[in-house]
Amino acid sequence: MDPYSYLNKEPYKLWIGGEFLPSDSKKTFDILNPVTNETIATAYEGGISDTEKAIRCARKALDEGNWGQLTQLERSQLLLKMRDVLKKRAEEFACLETLNCGKVYPGSLYYEIPAGIDGFEYYAGKARCLEGKVIPVAGGKFLNYVLWQPHGVVAEILPWNGPFMMGCQKVAAILGAGNTVIIKPSSWASLSVLALASAFQEAGFPPGVVNILTGPGSVVGETLVNSNEVDFVSMTGGTATGRRILELSAHTVKDVALELGGKSPNIMFGDVEIENAVRWGIAAFTLNQGQVCVAGTRLILHESIYEQVLSGIAIGCEAFKPGDGFDFFRGVNFGPVIHRDHAAKIWEYIDIAKKEGARLITGGEPYTDPALAKGNFVPPTVFADVTPQMRIFQEEVFGPVLTVSKFKTEEEAISLANATRYGLAGAVFTNDIKRAHRVVEQMKAGQVYINTYYSKGLCESPGCGWKESGVGGSGIYKYMHPKTVFVDLNKESAPPF
């Protein structure tokens, strides 16, 4: 297998109205491999005129094309065709995702790509069973029923930490609901999403139903949010970007859904099995090099197991082998973070933690290997004795950095868990099932795990962020809105006034 053989030699084009097009400006940008920071491909950078063209095409496909007239069965069948196309090309997309995002190849091939493909299968089924409801009103003299209908033209702004998996799951829901879509991937991680265009073409989606264009969020993203012709904007990314979208959306009063940052707590009580606690404590903050929105980056440990778990986590973290994700057969199991700028931000937080007086347990210093120095590698880093007053406790790092805090009582653990402005996810580890449910009930987060970490049903049971971690719903109904209908069943009727 040669992963580089899947790369286009010419710049990747925008996909607008069923055509592969260069941007109007003909401007391109480099696509980098974070393992080496070398350019592996180029892509056209979309601008305002390209975005407006995509909006017109999406609008036309919805209002004048046959997309809006397709039955649920016909939409479902197209989604299943897309599933089949992607299954045939799974290796290609796994290579692209690994090259562009610095992932470990088996994780791409056996988890993220299948999870993305499953989105099309899952929402192909959901598209055929979207149900409303009938509500008894006025003693049976009137029929009241509620319909769920698509928003219309949806703009989906994707993150860079899992563009294929999250992109497929979200776009499948958008299409299953009957919307048309404009997809904007991150410039840092656009390869696999740009390659999706040819898969949509192969699957036979009508022109303009799916449009894909790259470009800066300040240009493409803001044009999408400002447009009166875009009915709904969905974004996964940082809280600062979410605030900007909310601000801009006020001009058109359009619906938005925002999946934002997190600083998720992972509480472990003294009755846990130590080896298991160590394994989950490490996994919760090192998956995808810590670049996971729900990552358990705040470990809250009972005082009776504090030093023992810390010691085990240090040993486990030091056993990671960093490198190119395609060298997994040599034991590589830890890749780089996405970009030099992001790595610099993580190192800044590590320096802040040291200055704040947090106790460094492991990591915290750059790798000395010259090969690793070329890339954006940050070792798993653990700080102990972290208090809520420290920035490292409060602010999202989005990298492999763990803060560890000590508690004595259940009440103290809950207080520490809720002591940030975020409310995305959280976990509790304990053998006392009553205590587990008490703690879950009081945790202010949209997705919580007991004696495990990470979702086991990304499509089936999506979570919603609380507090500054999100706005809007989840799943297929996120991309639809309700309509309530009243029907007069009386033999004779007149206005009641």
What do you see in this structure?
The protein is built from 15 helices and 22 strands. It has 2 domains: 3-260 and 472-482, 3-Layer(aba) Sandwich (Aldehyde Dehydrogenase, Chain A, domain 1); 265-457, 3-Layer(aba) Sandwich (Aldehyde Dehydrogenase, Chain A, domain 2). The protein has helices at 48-63, 72-88, 90-101, 105-126, 163-176, 191-203, 217-226, 239-249, 274-286, 306-318, 340-356, 370-373, 391-394, 410-417, 433-442; strands spanning 14-16, 19-21, 28-33, 38-44, 133-137, 142-150, 153-157, 180-184, 210-212, 232-236, 255-259, 265-268, 298-302, 359-362, 381-384, 401-407, 422-423, 425-429, 447-450, 466-467, 470-471, 480-488. The strands form 6 sheets. Strands 14-15-16-13-12-18-19 form a 7-stranded mixed β-sheet, sandwiched between helices. Strands 9-8-7-10-11-21 form a 6-stranded mixed β-sheet, sandwiched between helices. 49% of the residues are buried. The chain has 497 residues and is of the alpha/beta class. The longest helix has 22 residues, at 105-126. Helix 8 links the parallel strand 10 (232-236) and strand 11. Helix content is 37%, strand content 21%.
